[in-house]
């Protein structure tokens, strides 16, 4: 990328080139503050020198436990620039999980955001004997705290200034020493089928993925974007760290996961990437909003969306939009849809993208109907975040697009998707056995996903290899398509199809709390808490009606015969959910075994 073969070299070149232009924005006390590329370089350099003064050597691992903020990215780049390896830890992880990740990665240094995350270290410090120093970003609540093993960011900056004065050229020299084959980052898997594994991603992997993304879904230097997914996850790392270095775009950090929608409204980004759960939540919010509108407002919205859908059908089929349809759409867009996009912060949106989990094709069509272009892509940590994607020029709803330039796809035994390209990872950290299992004898990456490739090269994912349900009657069923149909309802947050070795399919449902509560309040259905809301007969009937509608779209053997509602609110801290808010099928089936057995009793 622009003559650079490693991320540290690209970072240094961009900072020197862009100077006082804005690289990042963060909100403090209700005000968006801007930080330039010069600020970016200065802080990364100081942190790099500070880590070097603490003894960081090339190849050493630094772990970070923090919500998204500019300092997360500063430490990420500083570690890589000095030849180290950055490993992210989810803030929802427990103290014991933190200890496992620190020990497995052999981290010498740990960065924590605040007193809450520091407590996790303090409660498990005896289990992390190899850790030499903990660095705290936010001192609030810790002004009187003193510990020889803990220091604060300001102290690291002071160390960095002294070290830089004595070694003025070291930072640039270490960047110059960086090579494409150097290990850059560790991305730990979610651990749904055992202990998390450290995915080793090299500079070469990162640069390949970043350059491919820049060509297929280009971003511009004038683009604003919002960072809110965990930076531990390869998707957000690609979108908010690697991509902006290539595109020279500006990253705005959401205040928290609770304020994402408000922050998007304030920023009005040009490009916006989110997991399906976020796109589903926006759709749900709009559904609530329309339900509260006047009868005329609801009529106008429905007419506008219907016209938009008619126009979208032509566009998705690659056909010209008829003159009258185009005129009607322009009318309704001016009257209704433009205002709607402004209300949700997408009036400037050039492109929305989604990945990390399957999304309902109906949802993509709906967004197109309101004038939001949403493109689905596919990747995994082991491919540095990218395998295939739909683009503006080549987009097929229901697929995850065509393989990236320079990559190759094939369908292996059992319908497994297999991939080969320059962004395929180096292997699992300290786990040669699992690494060997992940590759075919002839060197292709086993994705673990099941799919098919059409004659034009579009990849369609039908499910996970390990999730295929074989009923007692011997029928093979991939549950993802059924689950996605259910999740298109604004009243259903998530669904898990059950039926392996059983006579028929059943389903565990997570309702959308906000929408179902609104449904109950509007109909004066009494409830005291979430459990009683789930137990209300009217809510049970609502979900049963949705399931009946979905069942009509599937063959008899694929139809859901019974369901139960998970009547506890789940967050990313719960073992049933990943950090990107996907239900872990194995944990759900294990934890809610009583509910499942009840459906088959």
Main β sheet profile = 8 strands, mixed
Q: Strand order, main sheet: write it out.
A: 7-6-5-3-4-8-9-19
Mean pLDDT across the residues is 93
What is the tally of helical segments? 21
CA-CA gap between termini:
60 Å
Shape: globular
Q: How many β strands by DSSP? A: 26
Radius of gyration: 25 Å
Percent strand equals 15-25%
From the helix content, strand content and strand pairing, which structural class follows? Answer: alpha/beta
Uncertain segments of ≥5 residues (pLDDT<50)?
none
Instruction: Work out the helicity level.
Output: 40-55%
What does this 3D model show about the protein?
- Helix 2 packs across helix 3 (about 70-80).
- Strand 10 (about 225), helix 9 (about 235-245) and strand 11 (about 250-255) form a beta-alpha-beta unit.
- The chain has about 600 residues and is α/β, with parallel strands linked by helices.
- The mean pLDDT is about 95.
Identify the notable features of this structure and list them briefly:
601 residues, eight-stranded mixed sheet, 42% helix, alpha/beta, 20% strand, globular, five-stranded mixed sheet
Quick overview:
The protein is an alpha/beta fold and 601 residues long. It is built from 21 helices and 26 strands.
Which SSEs are present, and which pair or pack?
Elements: H1 7-18, E1 22-28, E2 31-36, H2 37-54, E3 61-65, H3 70-81, E4 85-89, H4 95-105, E5 107-112, H5 115-124, E6 133-136, E7 150-152, H6 153-166, H7 170-177, E8 183-188, E9 198-202, H8 203-216, E10 224-227, H9 234-247, E11 250-253, H10 260-267, E12 271-274, H11 276-291, H12 295-316, H13 323-343, E13 351-354, H14 361-369, E14 374-378, E15 388-389, E16 402-403, E17 408-411, E18 416-420, E19 427-428, H15 432-438, E20 445-453, E21 459-464, E22 469-470, E23 476-477, H16 480-487, E24 492-498, E25 505-511, H17 513-522, H18 530-535, H19 537-551, E26 560-565, H20 585-591, H21 593-600
Parallel strand pairs: 1-11, 3-4, 3-5, 4-8, 5-6, 6-7, 10-11, 12-13, 13-14, 25-26
Antiparallel strand pairs: 1-2, 8-9, 9-19, 14-15, 15-16, 17-18, 18-20, 20-21, 22-23, 24-25
Helix pairs in contact: 1-2, 2-3, 2-6, 4-5, 8-9, 12-13, 12-14
